[in-house]
Write a structure and sequence with these properties.
154 residues; mainly beta; Glucose Permease (Domain IIA); 1 helix; 10 strands; 5% helix; binds zinc ion
């Protein structure tokens, strides 16, 4: 399942400028603010944050991002970052909720360390509930057209 149901284009792939260390296998998908975001797999919501404005910004805003964090089977998690401020007024999502693959979980925005509206997604290794662990490689089904997938994997 895709996180944007086919919308958006890949603006940063693995090991990109800001995808280093723990975030090595993250993807950034450029998409307009307010675009619906869908769970990539079924799972349980671990944490939700919705309190920062969609101003974008640099490193000084690195911890000021809105997100939905979901745990899947075998302890792997996915996280959806830079969500639009106020997305919880449009979709009901809270820690403890069970979500299905393809379920609407939020709206893309420009909160946090971001040079323009986009969705940052990563899949993380199993680990401590409150810690963002290392990202792992994953494939996105149906998000990008063939050209963009080629760009991602080069
Ligand atoms: Zn990113």
């Amino acid at each position: 399942m895709s996180s944007l149901n086919g919308q958006g284009w890949l603006s940063q792939g693995i090991r990109g400028t800001t995808h280093r260390g723990r975030m090595e296998y993250a993807y950034d998908l450029a998409v307009s603010i307010g675009s619906p975001v869908y769970a990539m797999r079924a799972g349980k919501v671990i944490a939700v944050q919705d309190k920062f404005p969609d101003t974008g910004g640099g490193r000084e805003n690195a911890s000021r991002f809105n997100y939905v964090w979901i745990e899947h089977s075998q302890g792997y998690r996915s996280i959806y970052v830079h969500l639009q401020q106020g997305f919880r007024e449009k979709v009901s999502v809270k820690a403890g909720d069970q979500v299905l693959a393809g379920q609407l979980i939020g709206y893309s925005g420009n909160s946090g360390w971001s040079s323009g509206p986009h969705l940052h997604i990563e899949v993380q290794r199993p680990g401590h509930q409150r810690v963002f662990t290392s990202s792992v490689p994953f494939a996105i089904a149906g998000v990008c057209g063939d050209q963009q997938v080629a760009r991602a994997t080069r």
